[in-house]
From TrEMBL:
<keyword id="KW-0808">Transferase</keyword>
<dbReference type="GO" id="GO:0005525">
    <property type="term" value="F:GTP binding"/>
</dbReference>
<dbReference type="InterPro" id="IPR007537">
    <property type="entry name" value="tRNAHis_GuaTrfase_Thg1"/>
</dbReference>
<dbReference type="InterPro" id="IPR024956">
    <property type="entry name" value="tRNAHis_GuaTrfase_cat"/>
</dbReference>
<feature type="binding site">
    <location>
        <position position="59"/>
    </location>
    <ligand>
        <name>Mg(2+) 1</name>
    </ligand>
</feature>
<feature type="domain" description="tRNAHis guanylyltransferase catalytic">
    <location>
        <begin position="35"/>
        <end position="164"/>
    </location>
</feature>
<comment type="similarity">
    <text>Belongs to the tRNA(His) guanylyltransferase family.</text>
</comment>
<feature type="binding site">
    <location>
        <position position="58"/>
    </location>
    <ligand>
        <name>Mg(2+) 1</name>
    </ligand>
</feature>
<keyword id="KW-0547">Nucleotide-binding</keyword>
<feature type="domain" description="Thg1 C-terminal">
    <location>
        <begin position="167"/>
        <end position="293"/>
    </location>
</feature>
<protein>
    <recommendedName>
        <fullName>tRNA(His) guanylyltransferase</fullName>
        <ecNumber>2.7.7.79</ecNumber>
    </recommendedName>
</protein>
<feature type="binding site">
    <location>
        <position position="105"/>
    </location>
    <ligand>
        <name>Mg(2+) 2</name>
    </ligand>
</feature>
<keyword id="KW-0460">Magnesium</keyword>
<dbReference type="GO" id="GO:0006400">
    <property type="term" value="P:tRNA modification"/>
</dbReference>
<keyword id="KW-0342">GTP-binding</keyword>
<dbReference type="Pfam" id="PF14413">
    <property type="entry name" value="Thg1C"/>
</dbReference>
<comment type="function">
    <text>Adds a GMP to the 5'-end of tRNA(His) after transcription and RNase P cleavage. This step is essential for proper recognition of the tRNA and for the fidelity of protein synthesis. Also functions as a guanyl-nucleotide exchange factor/GEF for the MFN1 and MFN2 mitofusins thereby regulating mitochondrial fusion. By regulating both mitochondrial dynamics and bioenergetic function, it contributes to cell survival following oxidative stress.</text>
</comment>
Length: 307
C-alpha cells in the first residue's frame, strides 16, 4: 500500500507548485458552485437596445466647493475649461460617444444608439464614465488652477437615461442648454447687484424675486451698462464637444522605379525617392459654444445621427 503511494509522494515533492494549483483549482470549483447563488441578488440593469444613451454627471456640493476654492463669480473660465478638459478625456476613452454638452458643474455624454458598451449595463457605464471624469478633474486641476491648491477632492454623481427617438435626444440637449441660459442670466444679474451694486446676497435675491428674463436684461443694461447678449458664448450657451471625422494629410516618400540614380561602378543602382501625399480619416473632438435649440446646428451636423 505504501509502495503504491510512492510515485505520488515523489511527484508532490518535485512539483509542489502543481500540487498546490490543483488543490486551489478544486477549492475554487467547490466554492464557486456552493456560493454562486448570491449572484441572483444582482439587479438586471441592461438598458433598452437601439436607444440613445446619455450619461449626465453633476458636481456634488459644488456651491461650497467653488467658495472654498475662490471661484470667480458668476463664471470662472478656469473651472469651465477644466470641466471641458476632463470631458475630452472621457470622449477619447469611449469611442462610442458622439457628443457631449457641459455647463456649470455638469456634463452630459451622448452614446451611439447601437453601442453595446459593457453589454449596455447602466451601472457599469455610469460608474466608469463618472469615475474617469472625476479622476481627471483632480489630475488636471494644477494645469488650470496653478496658484490654487486643491483643498479636498470633489465628487460627482451620475445617471444614465435612454432616449428612443432623435427628437427626444434633441429635446434633452435643448433642455440642458435652456437651463444654462436661465441660470447664467440670473447669476449674472445677481452678482452684478452684489459686486457692483453693493447689495447683500439676501437683498439681491429679494430684488430679483418674481422678475422675468426681460426684467433681468433691463437691470443689467440700465444699472450696470451690461448687454447680456455680448457676454461670452461659453457662459451663455455652454460647451459642446462634438466628434467629427476629418481628412488629415499623410506625407512620406515612395520609390520611383523608372528613375534610377547611377552609383559608382560596383555600387549598383539606387531608386530615387520622391515625396508623395495622401489623406486618411481621423476622429477629432471640436469644442463649440453655439446654439443647439434651433435647427441650424442639427442641419450642419447631421452626421451625429449615424456616427
Amino acid at each position: 500500500m505504501m509502495r503504491s503511494n510512492l510515485p505520488c509522494l515523489s511527484f508532490s515533492r518535485h512539483y509542489p507548485f502543481l500540487t498546490k494549483a490543483f488543490s486551489l483549482s478544486g477549492a475554487r470549483r467547490m466554492a464557486h458552485s456552493k456560493f454562486e447563488y448570491v449572484r441572483g441578488f444582482e439587479s438586471k440593469d441592461t438598458l433598452l437596445p437601439n436607444t440613445w444613451l446619455v450619461v449626465r454627471i453633476d458636481g456634488r456640493g459644488f456651491h461650497s466647493f467653488s467658495d472654498r476654492h475662490d471661484f470667480v463669480k458668476p463664471n470662472d473660465a478656469r473651472s469651465l475649461d477644466l470641466m471641458n478638459a476632463a470631458a475630452k478625456v472621457v470622449m477619447k476613452a469611449f469611442p462610442e460617444t458622439v457628443l457631449a454638452y457641459g455647463q456649470s458643474d455638469e456634463y452630459s455624454f451622448v452614446f451611439r444608439r447601437n453601442t453595446n458598451l459593457y453589454s449596455r449595463r447602466a451601472s457599469k457605464i455610469v460608474t466608469n464614465v463618472t469615475s474617469l471624469f472625476a479622476a481627471n478633474y483632480v489630475y488636471l486641476w494644477p494645469e488650470f488652477f496653478p496658484d490654487t491648491k486643491l483643498k479636498y477632492a470633489p465628487s460627482f454623481d451620475g445617471r444614465c437615461v435612454t432616449y428612443p427617438t432623435d427628437q427626444n435626444l434633441r429635446d434633452y440637449l435643448s433642455w440642458r442648454q435652456a437651463d444654462c441660459h436661465i441660470n447664467n442670466l440670473y447669476n449674472t444679474v445677481f452678482w452684478a447687484l452684489v459686486q457692483e451694486g453693493g447689495l447683500s446676497n439676501q437683498k439681491a435675491q429679494e430684488r430679483l424675486k418674481g422678475t422675468l428674463s426681460g426684467d433681468k436684461n433691463e437691470i443689467l443694461f440700465s444699472q450696470f451698462n451690461i448687454n447680456y447678449n455680448e457676454e461670452p458664448q461659453q457662459f451663455r450657451k455652454g460647451s459642446i464637444l462634438l466628434k467629427k471625422k476629418v481628412s488629415v494629410p499623410i506625407e512620406g516618400s515612395a520609390p520611383v522605379a523608372e528613375e534610377e540614380e547611377k552609383q559608382p561602378e560596383g555600387g549598383g543602382s539606387k531608386a530615387k525617392r520622391k515625396p508623395h501625399s495622401g489623406t486618411r480619416e481621423r476622429v477629432q473632438v471640436f469644442d463649440l459654444n453655439v446654439d443647439m435649440i434651433g435647427d441650424e446646428f442639427w442641419r450642419e451636423n447631421s452626421h451625429i445621427y449615424t456616427f
